[in-house]
Here is the input.
Amino acid sequence: MQLKKSDVLRSGAVKSNKSIQSELRKNNSNVKISGRIKEANSMVGKLARQPDSYKDVADLNDISGVRATADTIVDVQDTMDFVRENYNVIEEKNNIDESRGGYRSYHAIIEKDGVKSEIQIRTKNQDIWANYTHDNFYKPATEQQTMFFDRNRERINDYTLGMSDYFYGKDMGKDIKKPDCPPKISVVVGCL
Here is the structure.
C-alpha cells in the first residue's frame, strides 16, 4: 500500500522539483542547483525508521529535494531570501550559524503545486564536509567502519566538530588552522 502511494507521490513531485530547480538557477546565478526525487523504497524505509514522526508516506517533507551549493555565505543568504520571497515556506532551520553535530546547511521545507519539497542551501565547503561525513559516518560502507564508529564515537565527534568549525571559519574569511585528523580515522575512512 505505502509503496504504491509512494509511486504516485513521486510522479507528482517530478514536475514541482524541476520547476524549483529552474527558478533557482534563473534567479541565483552564483549557485549550483541539483535535485532528486526520493525512491519509493527509501520513503517506506523512512517510515519504518521514524514511526513516531511519520505515519504515512504523504507525511514526508523530503520526497522532492533540491540542493543549492553556493560559493559564499552571502550567496547562501541571498538564495534563502529568494526562497522566502517566492515560495510558501512551511519550516526552516539554520544549521549554518549553529551546526547540528558538525553538519552545516540551511534547510527550508516549502510547498509548491501541492508538493512539499526540502531545499538545502550550503557553501561548497559545507557540501564537501557534509558528503564526507554522510558517506563515512552516517552511512558507513563497511562493517569495519560501523564497528570503528561505534567504538570511537567521541574521537569522531571531536574531529567532525573541529572540521565543521574549520570550514565555517574558511567560509567566514578567517585564517583558521585545520584540525589534525586522528590516525585511526585516517586508516579506517581517510581524512580530508
